[in-house]
């Protein structure tokens, strides 16, 4: 630390600063807590201002760096030992020494080998690309708008978890609506995480490859959790949500994509809506959003088909029927369930 800091900043012995202890400066401008790394940053960046006696400029610049440091505190926990992770420039580290590299595409892989049923679990590149292209054209914008409204109502300024975030289309809408929220997006597919991280390059957003059955967040650390068309683990969602926190679940309604099913299957069936009671949660709102969408080219129809579970459960004859479609009008029909943790 520069030796000629203001006197009120020199209350902590240098040995404690070197050990990474908090350095508190009590001033009418702000209270500052500085880790060892920030001490080094200040020393390198602001020596000129302090040497010139420009204390107020030093304080203003230091405050901005401290606020940035606060934003860099990770919301994630170590998947090995469960302790808090520290977000560094290229890695995440925990006090026990476990380290996880941040991929070049911006996400961190917190999936352990015993949590993976295959080498590349989750949606493959074809499904992720198809969903990205389809959603970005706005076909499901009515759902995105309603989910964003709920995020603003229940998650504004808080910590939001989007579990099964996929390519990040809805994740971005949630984050923008609830600003200045902090957000964690988790998905088991690395391809999806790469897309989501590219979409949301924000200091208050962290994207992690992780399983919804082993969510990488501390207990009672989230104000709102979201699951949209993803596997659901009641125990994990209950654990990470604080008391009174909000759970938003989105599922397809009975008639969702029925026209596509009729075109592909000999015996199409409606979706079954499961029991909405969830232990430990109280249902606060139940909403339905529906509109007919028109796809007037085979490319968009194929993108829709490829992003659904039907794609891998359909016979060769069904695939041929889908490939022959050049025009489709179908219902985009969704049910949104809003719960409060008891």
Q: How would you characterize this protein structure?
A:
- The N terminus is likely disordered.
- The chain has an eight-stranded mixed β-sheet, with helices on both faces.
- The longest helix has 17 residues.
- The protein contains eleven helices and 14 strands.
- It is globular.
- Helix 5 packs across helix 6.
- The chain is of the alpha/beta class and 342 residues long.
- Helix 6 links the parallel strand 8 and strand 9.
- It starts with 13 loop residues before the first helix and ends with a strand.
Q: Separation of termini?
A: 48 Å
Instruction: Write down how many β-strands occur, each being a DSSP E stretch of 2 or more residues.
Output: 14
Work out the helicity level: 25-40%
Oligomer: single chain
Question: Approximately what portion of the residues adopt beta-strand conformation?
Answer: 15-25%
Strand order in the largest sheet: 7-10-9-8-11-12-14-13
Arithmetic mean of pLDDT:
83
* Broad shape: globular
Structure annotation, total helices: 11
Largest β sheet strand count, sense and barrel closure: 8 strands, mixed
The rounded Rg comes to 24 Å
Secondary-structure-based class equals: alpha/beta
The low-confidence parts are 1-50, 65-71
Topology pattern, helix = H, strand = E: HEEHHEEEEEHHEHEHEEHEHEHHE
């Amino acid at each position: 630390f520069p030796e000629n800091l203001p006197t009120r900043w020199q209350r902590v012995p240098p040995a404690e600063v070197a050990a990474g202890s908090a350095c508190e400066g009590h001033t009418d401008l702000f209270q500052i807590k500085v880790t060892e790394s920030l001490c080094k940053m200040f020393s390198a960046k602001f020596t000129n201002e302090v040497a010139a006696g420009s204390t107020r400029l030093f304080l203003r610049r230091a405050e901005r760096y401290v606020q940035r440091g606060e934003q860099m505190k990770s919301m994630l926990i170590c998947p090995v030992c469960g302790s808090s992770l520290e977000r560094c420039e290229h890695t995440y580290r925990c006090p026990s020494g476990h380290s996880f590299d941040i991929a070049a595409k911006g996400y961190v892989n917190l999936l352990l080998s015993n949590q993976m049923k295959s080498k590349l679990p989750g949606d493959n590149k074809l499904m992720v690309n198809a969903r990205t292209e389809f959603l970005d054209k706005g076909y499901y914008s009515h759902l995105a708008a309603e989910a964003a409204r709920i995020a603003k109502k229940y998650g504004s300024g808080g910590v939001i978890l989007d579990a099964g975030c996929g390519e990040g289309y809805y994740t971005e809408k949630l984050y923008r609506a609830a600003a200045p929220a902090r957000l964690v997006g988790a998905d088991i597919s690395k391809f999806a995480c790469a897309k989501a991280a590219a979409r949301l390059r924000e200091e208050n957003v962290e994207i992690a490859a992780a399983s919804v059955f082993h969510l990488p967040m501390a207990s009672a650390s989230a104000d709102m959790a979201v699951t949209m068309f993803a596997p659901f683990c009641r125990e994990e969602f209950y654990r990470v949500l604080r008391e009174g926190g909000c759970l938003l679940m989105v599922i397809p309604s009975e008639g969702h994509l029925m026209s596509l099913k009729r075109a592909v299957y000999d015996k199409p069936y409606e979706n079954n809506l499961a029991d909405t009671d969830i232990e430990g949660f109280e249902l606060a709102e139940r909403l339905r959003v529906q509109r007919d969408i028109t796809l007037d080219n085979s490319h968009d129809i194929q993108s829709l088909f490829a992003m659904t579970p039907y794609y891998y459960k359909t016979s060769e004859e069904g695939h041929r029927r889908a490939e022959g479609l050049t025009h489709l009008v179908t219902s985009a029909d969704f049910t949104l369930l809003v719960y409060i943790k008891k």
